[in-house]
Description:
Elements lengths: L2 H17 L4 H20 L10 H13 L4 H20 L26 H9 L5 H16 L3 H5 L6 E2 L4 E5 L5 E5 L2 H17 L4
Antiparallel strand pairs: 1-2, 2-3
Helix pairs in contact: 1-2, 2-4, 6-8
Amino acid sequence: MHTDALDWLTRYQTHLREQRRLSPHTLSNYQRDLDAAIAWCDTHNIEHWHELDNQRVRNWSADCHRKGLGGRSIQRRLSALRGFCKYLIQHKVLEHNPAQDIRAPKSPQKLPHSIDVDRLQRLLDCKPETWLEQRDLTMMELMYSGGLRLAELVGLDVNDVALREGEARVLGKGSRTRIVPVGSKAKTAIANWLPIRNVHAEDD
């Protein structure tokens, strides 16, 4: 970029350090993110800040995404550029903020890790030695048997379980009631838990 454009970046860093009194760590992050913007501008023959427009900022964001940068990191870069451009507007260098209202591409949502069948079976095969372990075993058997979500399990009441019929009524997403199966092992665990529950109801 042109020397004048780089001079404005130096002034901005001074402003952040002396006027806004940002920490050295935060200043370093700003510098790194703005250096990335400058490097991109250099490769696209952009010499002055007024040559940046919304489309070019979007292209920069897309290039960062294609290179594997995560959504949060791209958003941080955009935020740094947005703040710098706001400073340039205050000093009449820019008329509008080219980074305004531009959002980073969304990162793919990470799916929760599921427990493998063998490990789950080992958990269910454990012999409970305390009343808390019996309670936990009953909860796991119910979840596994009926495919319950955690929120459904927490909201389950004793009266919602019909042991003879081998089913339970749960309140699912959207406040919709559904009937789920209660397998033989879950029925046994519940039958073992209910007498203990009556004793420890206040402690549970």
